[in-house]
Design a protein that fits this description.
about 170 residues, mainly alpha, 9 helices, about 80% helix, rod-shaped
């Protein structure tokens, strides 16, 4: 046996040291459990950042709730993975709710309200001004503008429809 394997403390001994407030013992538990904890969290979150945050939060929680660990109720690794799993579930749900809320807000911002009074008022005012201005134009110019602007015809199409040369249409 090597000296390193002889000096390796059990998880239970390390947890007792954690309960006694020895932070290096928590670091050793982290080194032992981090890969498994990450896999556990990732299986819940399906997102790297969420899984990493869940592992970090879980180990902080393990430190702050170290007095609640009871060896009779299960192994240290089982206790730790339960905390990791619960943190991952919490973070995944919170991120999902936040994403849904942000998506909903973005969708709402892009839509016009059905009773958008200021926009309706401005549009009605512009329409009235446009009708008044068009009424002041000679009928020949008014017809060319109506076909081009409201029906979307090109100068060439207007010329064909009215039987006029394209230069005349452009001039009007």
């Amino acid at each position: 046996m090597t000296q390193a394997s002889v000096l390796r403390l059990s998880d239970a001994v390390l947890m007792q040291q954690v309960k006694d407030g020895k932070r290096p013992a928590l670091g050793e538990l982290y080194d032992r459990f981090a890969t498994r904890a990450y896999r556990t969290a990732f299986s819940v979150c399906h997102d790297r950042d969420c899984a990493q945050d869940a592992v970090q939060d879980a180990f902080v929680s393990m430190w702050s709730s170290r007095g609640t660990y009871e060896p009779a109720r299960g192994s240290v690794v089982t206790w730790a993975m339960t905390i990791v799993r619960h943190r991952a579930i919490y973070l995944a749900r919170r991120r999902s709710i936040t994403a849904q809320r942000d998506e909903g807000e973005a969708r709402l911002e892009g839509e016009t309200a059905l009773d958008d009074v200021p926009t309706d008022f401005a549009a009605r005012d512009e329409t009235e001004q446009l009708v008044d201005l068009l009424a002041r134009l000679p009928p020949a110019q008014r017809e060319v503008i109506r076909l081009g602007f409201f029906e979307g015809l090109t100068h060439q199409e207007i010329a064909l429809r009215l039987g006029l040369p394209p230069g005349t249409v452009k001039g009007r």
